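Hi team,

Filling in the usual template for the complex we talked about on Friday. All components are listed, including any nucleic acid strands or ligand strings, so the model treats them as one assembly.

SUBMITTER: L.P.
PURPOSE: interface mapping
COMPONENTS: two
RESIDUES: 476
SEQUENCES:
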Amino acid sequence: MKVRKEYLEALEKLKTDVLTMGELAKIAAKNAIDALVNHDKELAARLLEENSVIDRMEFEIENQCMKLLALQQPMAIDLRTIGTCMKIITDFDRISDLAGDIAVIVLKIAGEPYAKPLIDIPRISEISQGMIADCLEAFASHRIEKLEDFSARDDLVDGLVGQIQRELLAIMIENPRVITSASHLLYIALYQERIADHACNIASRIIYMVTGERRKLE
Amino acid sequence: MGWGGESREEMSKIETRGLNVYYGAVHALKEVTMKIDANKITALIGPSGCGKTTFLRALNRMNELRGAQTNGKVLIDGINIYNVEVDVIQLRKKIGMVFQQPNPFPMSIYDNVAYGPRLHGQRNSTLDEIVEVSLKKAALWDEIKERLYENALGFSGGQQQRLCIARALAVNPDIILFDEPCSALDPVSTARIEELLTELKRDYTIVIVTHNMQQAARVSDCTAFFLMGELIEYDKTSKIFERPKDRRTEDYITGRFG
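RESULT (copied from the run log):
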């Protein structure tokens, strides 16, 4: 006999909505860097518009969580799932905000030559998008193997950001006229680093959801 | 403790070893081995017929009154209460019990509380104090101190239940067993009893059977999940409700059981 049909359906809807929100955040992160690489102001502007959808989703999902907590007294895996959803939607929202911050910079600097060719920034973007994708997959499948090396991937991102920082500083010292454009790129690198940090937060929440163990990935 | 019995074994407030209970051909409790700590609230949960009430009643030999056969050990302070030398009257004095339906005797509040002490030979001169202390411990005194000689049956369900707790406390037990003490009460009375339970655990060891999982989660320190006569999982309450180990526990507490 199937019991608590409505409850289980509400839980399923919650998970689907969180996955959708995560997918949108991942796309925003990707689009931000695509817009940068291709000098695509249109894409950057669209990204900023679409971010309001993600903002609304965060409220809406939080609402679903509160309702389930108040009305259904979830326990064990259900409780951990809802707790995880409430936490990770904030990370997804922050990721899309950071993508938005990058888009704002793109609107300012696209069309002009950048202070340096983009090599590492797209690499970081690829790594952090991979991390978000693995989070979404683990959230859906409850298989956490792909989250195990997140600390190493985050270290890789941090290393690349450090490298970009040093390079840009050298460029700025050499040629003070590019300070404005170089510092824009520096911001973008730092935003990318934070996106990877949020992916780590999400991963450690999903590990908790699946195993009940609290583990910090950083 | 005063009921005789074999030499003390390794101490836990309550410990069962390979406990089995049969009602005729029905094997109601299967090989339950479990330690219960002093001054803790231990909740027993599980679906109807899982054996949780049978387990509770095995702790003060109440199952015998229903003609059950018991084997295995129940050690209280290290003494097996199923030994032939054990004085069951003394045992039940040490282990109080509160039931689902408030069941005060049809007499005054005072006489209800004094009933047990009188039966155990307490002199009238000390009864006033026992009655007052017991009613205070049961968080009932302030409400009824002016009405001590009124018939207990005229009070509300929540007050009657607290009276039953006071009655259990009056004979100075070590352990109190609660068999769904709130299932007949409204939410406010339930909250008062729950608050009282957490007060009482300072002085007593409490074991409570409850159908209300939120209640188990709210009041207990440890929770035991029973299913079809077996003890499936027993752990700290926070662990049971946040990350149970056994799939069957998880299915039950998440309501996927059916």
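MY TAKE: Chain A has one domain: 5-211. The mean pLDDT of chain A is 95.

Thanks, L.
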